[in-house]
Amino acid sequence: MDIQINHPSNTPIGQAVTFSLAEGDLIHILHPEQIVSYRGPSNGRSDRFMNVNRMYRKGKLIQSDMSGPSQFVAALPPGFAMKSVEIQNGSDLLYDFRSLFFYSDGITMQTRVLQIKNMLVTRDVIKVKFAGTGTLGILTQGPVCQTELHPTEPVYIDAGSLVAYPENAKLELTVYGNTLASQHMSYHWKMTGLGSVLFQAGRQNHRLEKDWANDGFIKRVLREIIPFGGIFIK
Predict the structure, then answer these.
(1) pLDDT tens for residues 133-174?
(2) 54 neighbors 31 (Cβ within 8 angstroms)
(3) Chain-centre distance of CA 111, in angstroms?
(4) Smallest Cα–Cα separation from 80: which of 63, 58, 99, 54?
(5) Which residue, among 166, 164, 171, 208, has the nearest Cα to 187 in the 3D structure?
(6) What CA–CA distance (Å, rounded) separates 28 from 65?
(7) For 178-225, what is each residue's pLDDT tens digit?
(8) pTM, to two decimals
C-alpha cells in the first residue's frame, strides 16, 4: 500500500490523500463519504454497517472495505490533515477512536476506560489501543509532533491537542506557570513515563487568526499614542 498526501500541510483548501492498493491489500475507511474518485474493479469496494459500539463512538453507520488492486482519492476539508502511523506488535499507544480515518487489515482494537476525572475534561469515556501490524490514519487539526516522556521530568501538553500517549503514562490535569499564566490557559496534561507522545500543533490556529483579525491590544494602543497612528498603522 502506498499513501500520497497531495497537500502535506494544513492548508485553507483542504487536503487530498491518494491511496494505491496492491493485490492483497485491504484497508477499512471509516469516512467513506470523503472518497471522491476511484479506479479499479467495481467489487474492490464493499460497504458494511459498523458494529454498535463503533457507531456510537464515531457517530456514523457505514464503513468501506477497500481492496486492491485499486487507487482512490479521499478529500479532507479545510482545517484537517491526516497522519499515517505504523503499528507494530507491542505498541502501547492509546488513541481517540473519533480521530481514526482508516486502518489496514490485520490491526485489532482494544478499548480502555478512562478515569472519571479525565472523562469530564476529554468528554470521552474510552480510548482505543491498536494491536497487530499495519497502518492507520489519524485525523488532526494541523501537523503532528512527537516528544519523548521522562520518568520524573514532566512535559505539559494542551489537553485538547493530545493525539496519542502510552497506556502506562502517568497523566494529571493541571495548569502551570505563575498565577496570571495559569488563569489564562486551558487545561494541560502533566505527563511522565516512558515512550512517545503525539500531539497536534494546529488546534490553536483559530485563536491566532481571530486575534490577528481583531488587531490586538498593542496595535490599538499604538494607533492612539503615535501621531497619525490611525493613518500609518493599518
Answers:
(1) 999 999 988 788 889 999 999 999 998 888 888 888 888 888
(2) no
(3) 18
(4) 99
(5) 171
(6) 5
(7) 888 887 788 899 999 998 899 988 665 555 555 555 555 566 556 556
(8) 0.74
